[in-house]
Amino acid sequence: MNNNTQLTPAVREASPFTERRTTQWTGNRLAGINPAKLNAQERKCLIQLARRLAEIEFKQRRLELTSPKEVREYLDASLLFLEHEVFVVVFLDNRHRLIATEEMFRGTIDGTSVPPREVVKRALQLNAAAVIFAHNHPSGTSQPSESDKRLTTRLRDALALVEIRALDHIVVGADGGTSFAEHGLM
Q1: Which three-class secondary structure state does DSSP give residue 167?
Q2: CA–CA separation, 53 vs 44, rounded Å?
Q3: Fewer beta carbons under 10 A from the terminal one: N or C of the chain?
Q4: Domain limits of the chain?
Q5: What digits encode the pLDDT tens for the residues 143-158?
């Protein structure tokens, strides 16, 4: 593969496909990448890679997502840098192990429509015992809006009718993210 001409020097130097490797290449093949020198396309690729790796890691190890911090770390890579709002549901089994993470709805820069019926339907299809909601705020602030709070209540109540627990709602933003559970909003 010799597509290195399309990559910036920061990525080209750290690429496993080049013959010349940086001195930082040792145990970590990505150590030579300088994020400040990446173009927009390369940043998007790295974010997608991080998202896939996090999902693979959680699925392979069937880790239990037991704290808002773990959930934020898991979701940050996939939601933080998007330019539009997305609503994601993390489906968990009865021991809070990951079944699936799905982007259920996609919106605009300042909102998305989330029909509770579709969330309940998908949770039942996956035989989930619990769920965690998450969405990003492209504005960068993770402060929940009144609309976010109303949606969470509607979703929690709809899922409760079929005995599926809503554990948290994470709002991902550049300022670190907000957990509804940590703030007593669940």
Answers
A1: strand
A2: 14
A3: N
A4: 37-179
A5: 898 999 999 999 999 9
Q: What DSSP line would sit under 102-152, residue for residue?
A: EEEEE-BTTB----HHHHHHHHHHTT-SEEEEEEE-TTS--PPPHHHHHHH
What tokens appear for 123 in the block? 């949770």
Look up the pTM and report it.
0.65
DSSP string, 42-110: HHHHHHHHHHHHHHHHHHHHT-B--SHHHHHHHHHHHHTT-SS-EEEEEEE-TT-BEEEEEEEEE-BTT
Please name the residues in contact with 22: beta carbons below 8 A apart, sequence gap of 6 or more.
13, 14, 31, 32
The answer to whether 181 touches 68, Cβ cutoff 8 Å, is yes
Hey, what's the torsion of the CAs at 7, 18, 56, 133, to 10 degrees?
Answer: -20
Domain 37-179: which CATH number of 3.40.140.10, 3.40.50.720, 3.30.70.270, 3.40.30.10: 3.40.140.10
Q: Could you report the per-residue pLDDT of 156-178, keeping only the tens digit for each? A: 999 999 999 999 999 988 887 88
